[in-house]
Amino acid sequence: MAVVQPATQTTHMFLNIGPSHPAMHGIVQLIVELDGERVLGADVEIGYLHRAFEKECEVGPYNNAIPYTDRLNYVSPMINNFGYCLAVERLLGIEATERCQYIRVIMSEISRISDHLTCLGASGMELGAFTVFLYMIKAREWLWELIEAAAGARLTVSYGRVGGVKADLPDGFADRTRRVLEDVRGVLLECNTLLTRNRIFVDRMQGTGVISKERALSYGITGPFLRATGVALDVRKATPYFVYDRIPFDVPTGQHGDNYDRYLVRMEEMEQSMRIIEQALAQIPAGPLNVDQAGQVLPADVMVDEAKLGHVAGFKQAQVRLDPTLQGSTRGFHEAINAPERRAVLPAKEDTYGNIEGLMHHFKLIMHGHGIRPPEGEYYSAVEGANGELGFYVISDGSERPYRVRVRPPCFTIMSALPELIVGDMVADIVPTFGSVNMIGGEMDR
Amino acid sequence: MLQTLVERFPQFLLKTSAYRGQDTAVIKREGLLEMAGRLRDDPGLQCDLLMDLTAVDYLKYGRSLGSAPTRSTPSPLPYYMKPKPTTEIWERAVSNETYRFDVVYHLFSSVYHHRIRLHVPVTAADPVVDSLTSLWAGANWFEREVWDLFGIRFTGHPNLRRILMYDEFQGHPLRKDYPVNKRQPLIGPTT
User: Fold this and answer.
1) Considering A90, A125, A148, B191, which has the largest number of Cβ atoms within 10 A of its Cβ?
2) What angle do CA A316, A321, A327 make, to 5 degrees?
3) Which chain A residue has its CA at the smallest distance from B132's CA?
4) What's the domain count of chain B?
5) How many Cβ atoms from other residues are within 10 Å of residue B92's Cβ?
6) Would you say residue B104 lies in a domain?
7) pLDDT tens for residues A32-41?
8) Vertex A423: Cα angle to A418 and A426 (nearest 5)
């Protein structure tokens, strides 16, 4: 009597996630094969944010590439700036001054904290912890205000210069930074309380997105992602650059290589970064003394007009009052933060505006067809970016344009491992796993 | 490091050099797979991380693109802009005319923290090298990128298709003969 129902036909479902999807930070497409809620296979499509960074670098002189590097990892642009500058400096065979190297360390670590805050805040938000996101973005805002005080910009800072940095730290920067770090610690403590033992958060993070130590190394993964699997590899320790070898800090590692360990590693890395900043602020050689208190201070346009008329007597000692965006790069500051290398470093603004030698020097570095000319050669500079090893491989053919600039983007290798990370997990686990990859489209697609 | 390489792989090496403190070995294409495998597995070397894989097109090396003064027509430089005398001279091991491309590998040891750079010269007529996907999973995307941007093929790669560009893209944009302002045919939904 009863009608026998045919057995339900089940097929695998293919699902497109992205390219435009709120959980796909930036634009990237995941094509996943599903059996019910379980992920059976996955493919990743990248390249939606490709802006021909490497090709554009070959077109202009060396300094032209610095603003482009801001747009690689736009959450921590300072690290990109310094990585590129380091490669060109090594090609030229010059060394930044000690104060400059400390400034670079401090700014890199501030950037690293803001990057980790963004990553963890966004991950938290995607798992429903919206409060954490707001708290962390609030703390990031304080850090960006520090960056703004030094560089004049918040996101696209272009703060690095070949041979130095754009400007010295502003007055009272050390005290202000210490106060901000105290506040950031408070925020991290709050977030720690909200997340680390939160049942919902732990259940979603623990045991998802697992990768073994061997597979991570095989994929070329570096940074917090690799350290969460238990490999204590950090470029700052392994091959120290700047002054990282003088500053003691710990390299936190995880054990399981899952999302939760990556969260813990990033939380601890922020604490270590703050430790580095505090020590660097204590160690940094004293700032410049204002050379000549008796020297006159002229507005820049007045100085240029006077110099055009040949009224340059006394200009050797005169100081110029600059536009706020150029503050910290006048004489006195200039010597402290820039390498004594006239092949690469612009003259102090007083010299550019006040005498013909300075103007010619400026011209020789800025005008079309002129610029920095490293000798023929190649150099691969590696710095610890927020996501892992950030490499700049620069080749010079002796002209004023880089022959080739190659960026080794840290999240590129992690994204190539993403199919392996999500296969076997549920659809919902894609979100925390993808969040912990911390994909930055600008850096991966270049 | 370089000494070890010279002792163990004399048959593959074209040249070794240390420039600015970085070790470079230029090797023959035939020896790549074996040498990379030995570099990875040798207990004394253990270069277990393929940090980077890229390529360089030497087509216009030393010939600047625009009207700017080049090495052949140098503009007079003031004394402080002149290059400093140095004993370190970088030179390519092979001629740019014969071997247009170099495929460049950066290896790193997570144990000993040393780096080694491998250059594999290939010709324009036969831009093919062996794929390292059998040794490192990370080589997969890197090699796809080099194929996409330089048009260098990798034998043994499981899925060699474009990665940053779209499938309909014509040409390989990081080749030096690809004009920076070249337009691509518009693509869109087929009607």
Assistant:
1) A90
2) 110
3) A218
4) 1
5) 17
6) yes
7) 998 888 898 8
8) 110
**Is B28 within a domain?**
yes
Q: Please name each of the domains of chain A with its CATH number.
A: 13-45 (no CATH), 53-287+372-445 (1.10.645.10)
Q: How many residues does chain B have?
A: 191
Q: Could you tell me which residues are beta bridge partners of residue B15? A: B26
Q: Which of B61, B55, B65 lies closest to B148 in space, CA to CA?
A: B55
| One-letter amino acid of A365 | L
Element (H, E) at A173: helix A173-195
B7 contact partners, CB below 8 Å, separation of at least 6: none
Bridge partner list, B54: B104
The shortest C-alpha distance from A198 to chain B (Å) reads: 34
Nearest to A327 by CA among A149, A110, A112: A149
Q: Model ipTM?
A: 0.88
- DSSP assignment letter at A4: P
Strand pairing class (B115-122; B101-108): antiparallel
Contact A222, A233 (CB under 8 A): yes
Say if B154 falls within a structural domain.
yes
In chain B the first and final C-alpha atoms are separated, in Å, by: 60
Contact B62/A342, CB-based, under 8 Å?
Answer: no
> Are B32 and B10 contacting, i.e. CB atoms less than 8 angstroms apart?
no
Closest residue to B48, CB basis, from A217, A401, A404? A217
CA of B6, closest CA in chain A: separation in Å? 21
How many Cβ atoms sit within 10 Å of the Cβ of residue A420?
18
Per the DSSP assignment, residues forming a β-bridge with A384 are A389
pLDDT of A205 over the 80 cut: yes
Q: Whole-prediction pTM value?
A: 0.85
Closest-CA residue of B relative to A54 is: B174
Percent of chain B beyond pLDDT 90? 29
Q: Which residues contact A176 (CB under 8 A, 6 or more apart)?
A: A146, A149
Q: What token pair was written down for A115? A: 């990057």
For residue B156, give its domain range: 1-61+86-191
A39 vs A33: CA distance, rounded Å? 6
Q: Give a yes or no: residue B71 inside a domain.
A: no
**Per-residue pLDDT averaged across A213-237, rounded?**
91
CA distance A309 to A188: 58
